[in-house]
Specification:
Length: 348
């Protein structure tokens, strides 16, 4: 903003100053990345993700140009969850990379003296995509929310272009805006609740497990247990090792007091991921109901080990100790509980 609307220096002068000051830091960062890559380590550990930074960096230029920019211009086929698992050809990567990181910046510099609003809008679009769509792998390779901030720049560019339109072209523009309004109304209907939102995603991308699992969870909350189990089973058909779906099916059987049916699902989930705190807690609860108290206690302990702030696991562990007549141990554990969560209150 300072460059375009406050500073009196021309953009090329700013580009020179920035390049001069950034040369050594950029070389240092690149050297660090190279050292980490050669040692097989990640420089910037992200949250849960299935992507290495190199794979993520290779695919993102295509995501930006062929998905985000496309959706900005014509937002059809939107989905809260997107499958972008197709392979990226080397030529496609090179073409998208050159377009985004070379051609567009050169165009920005060239037109900036003549049209500051367009230069600013395009700069905003490219820069605001860097945190989510560069080399730091996130959980989702594609997420439409990543385009929300860049759309501010897109709107500025589009608005500036319309200033130069002849009167007869405004008819085309108003038609375009009308279509966007209709698409907004349609999309609002999809976002009215969790069931409609995840059903839309599961229809558009039927081979993704998360939409089916989340649709099942939405049905579970409403008490539609049969519909929920159906969606969880679809998720398991796609990925038999989907821990969340296994745990969710077991949880529904637990709610229906069909404990013997629930236990195998929790056990299967833990055989895949022993650190899953919720599955440990749920299996502990199921064991407690069938009076396998020692195993229940151990599972509550494991749930707390993997999630120290899991309130139900703490409460059940302490109440189980109290019910077994181990009051001294129960008070000791309550003290541990209070140290982690000082506002905790548990009558014993």
């Amino acid at each position: 903003y300072h460059l375009y609307f406050i500073s009196s220096d021309p953009p090329m002068a700013w580009a020179g100053k920035i390049a001069k000051r950034l040369t050594l830091p950029v070389l240092g960062v690149l050297g660090l990345f190279l050292a980490m890559w050669l040692n097989g380590k990640s420089l910037l550990p992200a949250g849960q993700t299935n992507y290495a930074w190199f794979e993520y960096a290779i695919k993102e230029p295509s995501v930006i140009l062929l998905y985000y920019f496309h959706k900005m211009i014509l937002p059809v086929g939107l989905s809260v969850d997107v499958d972008y698992s197709r392979g990226i050809h080397f030529i496609e990567f090179i073409a998208c990379f050159i377009t985004i990181y070379i051609a567009i910046p050169m165009y920005i510099i060239r037109l900036s003296p003549e049209n500051k609003l367009v230069g600013f809008g395009l700069s905003w679009m490219v820069i605001s995509l860097i945190p989510t769509s560069s080399i730091v792998p996130l959980l989702d390779l594609v997420a439409e929310r990543h385009a929300y901030l860049p759309m501010i720049g897109f709107s500025i560019v589009l608005g500036r272009i319309m200033q130069d339109y002849a009167l007869w072209k405004w008819g085309l523009f108003l038609t375009y805006v009308g279509v966007l309004c209709l698409l907004t109304i349609e999309r609002n209907d999809v976002w009215k609740d969790d069931v409609s939102l995840w059903k839309d995603a599961s229809i558009k991308y039927p081979l993704l497990t998360r939409p089916h699992n989340n649709l099942g969870e939405a049905h579970d909350i409403l008490g539609n247990y049969e519909e929920a189990i159906k969606e969880f089973n679809i998720a398991l058909k796609i990925n038999p090792s989907h821990v969340f779906a296994l745990n969710n099916i077991g949880n529904i059987y637990g709610k229906k007091n069909e404990v013997q049916k629930a236990i195998p699902y929790f056990e299967m989930a833990l055989s895949i991921d022993p650190t899953h705190a919720t599955a440990n807690y749920n299996l502990g609860l199921a064991y407690q109901k069938i009076q396998r108290f020692n195993e229940a206690y151990q599972l509550y302990e494991r749930a707390i080990r993997y999630n120290p702030y899991m309130d139900p696991a703490w409460r059940n562990k302490i109440m189980l100790l109290d019910a077994l007549g181990m009051k001294a141990k129960a008070f000791e554990e309550f003290g541990n509980y209070k140290r982690i969560m000082p506002d905790a209150d548990l009558p014993l």
